[in-house]
Design a protein that fits this description.
CATH topology of the largest domain: UDP-N-acetylmuramoyl-L-alanine:D-glutamate ligase
CATH superfamily of the largest domain: Mur-like, catalytic domain
Shape: globular
Helix content: 25-40%
Structural class: alpha/beta
Distance between the termini: 57 Å
Strand order of the largest sheet: 8-9-7-10-11-12-13-14-15
Largest sheet: 9 strands, mixed
Length: 424
């Protein structure tokens, strides 16, 4: 079956499922393969549960007319997504970066949704499967699609860019993330910049942070560019008013008080503001969108529990975001500051030195208490209390309850440090 013909089938049943545990009625089931499963073997089950078609790539499973045989299911899903993207009239905005992608995506979606029919990547489905699924969620009435792109090695953003074919793009920042896959900080810059390389080579538009020296260095190479800045007059000016604890900023004569903690969220807001400006969203509606957005899913969530004011930032961590979180806690005008830090993953050969530097930084900030947990932090040379596992940390906290104060919980997703909340 050709992609064009499969797209006609998709238009009649414009829902896609990849997991029979979450099958959607009247959807098309794509039998993807993983390290520990073969989706082909679930094709019949998908039909039984309500899928109208199943797409497989092993002939023995193509047992009736509702099962469509292709050469490769994943490639077919990706090709179908690109075909659908070009079939629709929606403008596509892609974004990537080392930190802040998901929050920035949510802020852009909140702002543009005030004026346009807008869809965005759900959660962090930002890889070679998630991006196609998001593209296939574009409906005929969709005007703007905001596509988040993640990567941990070279050429991945290039691949996703060619798949999504964005009209606009934005890179949040370049940080020490996924060093193991990218090889170095220079590798991160090169890999993330593949988005801007795609946009420039296809004469599309770039949104940028003109105060980022890395982005500014390549400014002349961007054909069509729109940015924000506090320093450069040729770009849209957004003024940072502070973050104690919530980011406050000013655009023209309008003050915006967000529910986002941390100075690091300022540029995330700026990206949404400059895109709102470009797409002619009234400033008052931009203000409503940013002030109404409240973070969730363990991303810089501010909460209170048993007398503790908690910054729960346990969704992910790398040296850049860890440093920013510590600096934000240090800058807060608050008593009894406590930092509970978990290991940062995917740092490869740099893991030892990066964990040592974070331990030393945390120790220098004169917090009331710093606790380190994880095998990498446990190996650091520091006098700070440290624990090789979460279980040992839990034993310590049961015997030594934390004083009431202001607690930062920060670590990589694999550490699952939100579990600390049950111990307070």
């Amino acid at each position: 079956m050709t992609i064009a013909r499969l797209h006609e089938v998709f238009l009649d049943s414009p829902l896609v499922s990849t997991d029979t545990r979450k099958i959607q009625k009247k959807s098309i089931f794509f039998a993807l393969k993983g390290a520990n499963f073969n989706g082909n073997s679930f094709a019949s089950e998908a039909l039984t549960k309500g899928a109208v078609y199943a797409v497989v790539d092993e002939p023995e499973f193509a047992i009736n007319d509702q099962i469509i045989l292709v050469d490769d299911v994943l490639s077919t899903l990706q090709e179908l997504a690109t075909f659908h993207r070009n079939h629709c009239t929606a403008k596509v905005i892609a974004l990537t970066g080392s930190n802040g992608k998901t929050t920035t995506k949510e802020l852009i979606h909140a702002v543009l949704s005030k004026t346009y029919k807008t869809i965005a990547t759900k959660g962090n489905l930002n890889n070679h499967i998630g991006v196609p699924l998001t593209l296939l969620s574009i409906e005929p009435e969709t005007e703007i699609a905001v596509i988040e792109m993640g990567a941990n090695h070279q050429k991945e953003i290039d691949f996703l860019s060619n798949l999504a074919q964005p009209d606009f793009g934005y890179i949040t920042n370049f940080g020490k993330a996924h060093i193991e896959g990218f090889g170095s900080e220079e590798g991160v810059i090169k890999g993330k910049s593949e988005l801007y390389d795609y946009l420039t080579s296809h004469q599309k538009s770039v949104f940028l942070n003109a105060d980022d020296p890395i982005q500014l260095e390549k400014l002349a190479t961007y054909i069509s560019k729109y940015g924000f800045s506090q320093e450069h007059q040729q770009f849209y000016k957004v003024e940072f008013l502070g973050a104690n604890p919530f980011v406050q900023l000013r655009v023209q004569d309008t003050t915006i008080q967000t529910q986002l903690i941390g100075t690091y969220n300022f540029t995330n807001c700026c990206a949404a503001i400059v895109m709102g400006k470009y797409f002619n969203v009234p400033l008052e509606q931009v203000k409503e969108a940013l002030e109404g957005y409240k973070p969730e899913n363990n991303r810089s969530q501010l909460m209170t529990k048993k007398g503790q004011q908690i910054i729960l930032d346990a969704y992910n961590a790398n040296p850049t975001s860890m440093k920013a979180a510590l600096e934000n806690l240090h800058a807060m005008n608050a008593p009894n500051k406590i930092a509970l830090l978990g290991d940062m993953f995917e740092l490869g050969a740099t893991a030892a030195i990066e964990h040592q530097q974070i331990a030393e930084l945390a120790a220098s900030m004169n917090f009331k208490l710093v606790l380190l947990v994880g095998n990498n932090f446990y190996k650091t040379a520091t006098d700070l209390p440290k624990f090789p596992s979460f279980e040992q940390l839990a034993d310590y906290l049961k015997k030594h309850p934390l004083e009431k104060g202001n607690l930062l919980i920060k670590g990589s997703r694999g550490m699952a440090l939100e579990r600390v909340l049950d111990l307070l």
